[in-house]
Amino acid sequence: MTAEIFIDGEAGTTGLQIRARLEGRTDLDFIQLPDAQRKETEARRDALNRSDVAILCLPDAAARDSVALIESNDVKVIDASSAHRTAPGWTYGFPEYDAGQRAQIASAARVTNPGCYAISSVAMLHPLVASGLLPADWPVTINAISGYTGGGKGLIAEFEDEAADNYSEAAYWVYGLGLKHKHVPEIQQWGGLSERPLFVPGVGRYRQGMIVQLPLQLWALPGAPKAQDLLELYARHYAGEPCVEVAGLEDTGAMARLDPESLNGTNKMRLHVFASDDGRQAVVMVLIDNLGKGASGQAVQNLNIMLGVAEETGLADALVY
C-alpha cells in the first residue's frame, strides 16, 4: 500500500530537496498541483485533505494557514517551518532527542521539523542539561556559521545572482544582531534552558553546510567536568544512532580545522569536543548539512518513522548539489 504525500511549498529550497530525496520511492505517491494552482486556497485544501502525510515547506504564517485548511482527522503533518516548534500539541521531530522521542514521532499526527541551528544546538545542550552537567540557568552562548542556502531563495539570489542589484561579495556575514533569531525560543525550550541563550549566527559564501559551537568554561561548571566526561555523555546518549556520530577526543584533538561542508548531501550529524591543553576549557561543535539533517533530510527521516518504514530509506546515498 502506498502513502499519498503532498508537499505544500514544493517549489521552495526545502521542498525541492525533500522531493529529490523521495524520488524513486515505490511506497509513495505524490499529489502535485499545477503551477497556477499552488497558491489557490481551495486547490490546496483539497490536496491537503486527500494526503496521508502533508509536508509543509512554507513561511510560518502560510504554514499555520495550511494547518487550518486540514479537516480530515486522517491527515498527518510534518511542518518544516518554525511556526509550531514550541507549540503545544506538536511533537518535536528530533528522534535522537531522547529514548522516547522516536515512538512519539511514530504515533504523532503533528510533527514539527527542527530548525537547522536549533537541532544542532539542542543536540549539544539537551544531554548536558538533562544529566546535570550543565545547569539549566547557565549563561549559554552559541556561535554558528551556515551556508547561504539556509536563508532561502532571497539569500541564495543575493550570493549567486551577479546581475542582481543586491549582489554581495562578502565572504562572511554575522546577522541576527538584534539577538532575536527565530530559533532561540526553540533552542531554549528543547535545550532545557531556563534562561534565553545568547545566539550569534553567521552565513558564509558557500552553498551548504553548518557548524554550531557551544563554548564552555569547564572550570566554572559545577564539579568542573573534564572534556572526557562530556564525550562519554554524548557517546552514551547517541549510542546506536545511525544518523549521529560522536568523534573521539584523539581524532578531534588531531584536527587543525573543521570543514563545514564535509557532511553535505547526507543526513548525518557529527559532534566534536575540542579541549584546551590544561582541560579548563572546551568547545562542543556540531557539524551538519543545513539542507540535510537541518531540513529536508530530517523531514524524510521523520516521514519514514511516521510511515513505519526503515528510517534511513532514501537517506543513505549522498545528494550533491
Account of the protein in words:
- This protein is of the alpha/beta class.
- The protein has two domains: 3-113 and 294-307, Rossmann fold (3-Layer(aba) Sandwich), CATH 3.40.50; 116-290, Dihydrodipicolinate Reductase, domain 2.
- It is built from ten helices and 13 strands.
- The protein has helices at 13-22, 41-50, 60-69, 101-107, 116-131, 152-160, 184-191, 227-237, 249-253, 292-307, and strands at residues 3-8, 28-31, 53-56, 76-79, 91-92, 110-112, 141-147, 172-174, 198-204, 210-217, 244-246, 269-275, 281-288.
- The protein has a seven-stranded mixed beta sheet.
- Helix 1 links the parallel strand 1 (3-8) and strand 2.
- Helix 5 packs across helix 8 (227-237).
- The longest helix is centred in the middle third of the chain and has 16 residues, at 116-131.
- The protein is globular.
* Percent in helix: 25-40%
How far is it from the N-terminal to the C-terminal residue, by CA? 32 Å
Number of strands: 13
CATH architecture of the largest domain: 2-Layer Sandwich
CATH classification, class level of the largest domain: Alpha Beta
Provide the CATH superfamily of the largest domain.
Dihydrodipicolinate Reductase, domain 2
Largest sheet: 7 strands, mixed
Biggest sheet: strand arrangement: 8-9-7-10-13-12-11
- Approximate strand percentage: 15-25%
Low-confidence stretches: none
Structural class estimated from helices and strands:
alpha/beta
Provide the gyration radius in Å: 20 Å
Count helical runs: 10
Q: Look at the structure and give the mean pLDDT.
A: 92
CATH topology of the largest domain: Dihydrodipicolinate Reductase, domain 2
| Broad shape | globular
Give the SSE string.
EHEHEHEEHEHEHEHEEHEHEEH
Question: Number of folding domains?
Answer: 2
